[in-house]
Amino acid sequence: MKILITGASSGLGAQLARQYASSENELILLARRADKLYSLRKELYEKCQDVSVIVTDVTEFETLQEKIKTIENLDMVILNAGISLGHNQDITPIAEFKKLYDVNVLSNHAILEILLPKFENKGSGKIVFISSLASLFSMPSSKVYSSSKRALNAYAEGIRYKYKPKGIDVLTILPGFIKSELTDKNDFDMPFLLDTREGVKRIKSAIDANKEFYPFPLRFYLIIRLLNLLPSFLREKIVNSVS
Length: 243
Ligand SMILES: NC(=O)c1ccc[n+]([C@@H]2O[C@H](COP(=O)([O-])OP(=O)(O)OC[C@H]3O[C@@H](n4cnc5c(N)ncnc54)[C@H](OP(=O)(O)O)[C@@H]3O)[C@@H](O)[C@H]2O)c1
Description:
Helix content is about 50%, strand content about 15%.
């Protein structure tokens, strides 16, 4: 399988590369930090000799598109690159808000604008969106991040309706907290925090099983579902008591 992984220089993306590294797979690792990508390629060499690297900033859409244009016969893209603004109650400066949307939402469309026609011509392909449980519940301290991932869910849903009948699988993975550089910045107790290896093992199982919508860990997901069922005045009380 030929697989493109965005945000492969650390955290979930790097661990996904480790889990997909095998003699049967060809990996393309994309991110900004060249040193991290090349050292990951070296680390994977024993298990997978076919690893290439694309060093680019996903918010530079034209350059990004130029760089991925040359990829042929791709079987799967894992759209994993993402950022958070940490957790704070301040009003987000517009430049930071825009940057987050460029990475978490628009860059995925920049990539798919190139890849969708290729998958369509091939009559097969798999698109994996790495969303978040945060897309299902908005806390005041992470509203910008939550809203970006909710936008991603809506975009993924539309893509799925259109392209599934054309043989293209579209999966949305919604992880809770998993240890990574992104969560290392959080200075609060993260409920149901998973170790990187365990979290990514679950993501890979869901991808391999073709789960179209995979929120996890289940207990955290059920709590969020329950909160969403409460009357809004009660939900408001709970949110304000924990934030
Ligand atoms: N960890 C969690 O608890 C959790 C939970 C739910 C969802 N997620 C999602 O999982 C994904 C991976 O996050 P993570 O936790 O593994 O965090 P991470 O370790 O910080 O990884 C983020 C990755 O995105 C890349 N990236 C960020 N900005 C980029 C840009 N402008 N251009 C190119 N690449 C960029 C980073 O690479 P460079 O810095 O080298 O460019 C890095 O490889 C994100 O979409 C995140 O929202 C994470």
